[in-house]
Design a protein that fits this description.
Length: 216
């Protein structure tokens, strides 16, 4: 299998999968907008604490717990809720759960529904929290449909590190829009996803959609 894509000064032949195993055969796809993600993952950075919310000095050892704590600290310190929640990618707060953007989305619109309580198993969720999670999943489907008009949706949960959970200690439900053919050749051959909008745009669009649905 071969592919052709524009790199450097023009179009050139892609490499076969076997050729890609050669250590001298490395293609580069420059994505400077991801520099913020790379620098946020530097050693010593507290997981889940955006740079704009770094005034919070704590560390709860959990991406989601740190995220909420840093947002709440910023609001208590005088930052507007809109600005603090935008900095953290927090789209919606409910009673038992919140919805936030995935900082490394599989598709545009990839969000997570997360309980405030730090629990690592679905069976451990209180009934009210579990019920609200499903209600928020239904609301999320409507919001994603309104904003992106996709052909379908993925809703999924990985429980435990061996099951693929990136944050194994704090259960969360992924939700994302999908389109027929949205896995392109570059995903298959180069293991790279192409996203048409940045996280700030995603946050603004979804924030407005959720607000409209909550008031309708």
């Amino acid at each position: 299998m071969q592919a052709v894509w524009p790199l450097g000064d023009g179009w050139r032949r892609g490499v076969t999968i076997l050729e890609r195993t050669d250590s001298n055969c490395m293609d580069h796809l420059w994505t400077p907008w991801r520099y913020a993600y790379v620098t946020a993952a530097e050693t010593g950075t507290r997981a889940g604490v955006p740079h704009a919310l770094a005034a919070w000095a704590g560390d709860l050892g959990c991406v989601f717990c740190n995220l909420i704590a840093s947002i709440d600290f910023a609001i208590a310190g005088g930052m507007s809720a809109e600005n603090a929640e935008a900095a953290g990618g927090l789209v919606l707060r409910a009673v038992h759960c919140f919805i936030c953007l995935n900082a490394f989305p599989y598709t545009s619109g990839h969000v997570m529904i997360v309980p405030y309580t730090h629990l690592d198993h679905l069976a451990a969720l209180p009934a009210a929290t579990g019920h609200e999670m499903i209600e928020l999943a239904q609301l999320t489907e409507r919001a994603l449909d309104r904003v992106y008009m996709p052909h379908g949706f993925n809703f999924g949960m990985n429980v435990g590190q061996s099951a693929g959970a990136g944050v194994a200690g704090h259960i969360h439900l992924h939700a994302m829009p999908r389109w027929t053919g949205d896995t392109s050749f570059i995903t298959t051959v180069a293991e790279t996803r192409i996203l048409p909008e940045d996280l700030e745009a995603t946050w603004r669009r979804l924030r407005a959609a959720f607000a409209a649905l909550k008031t309708s």
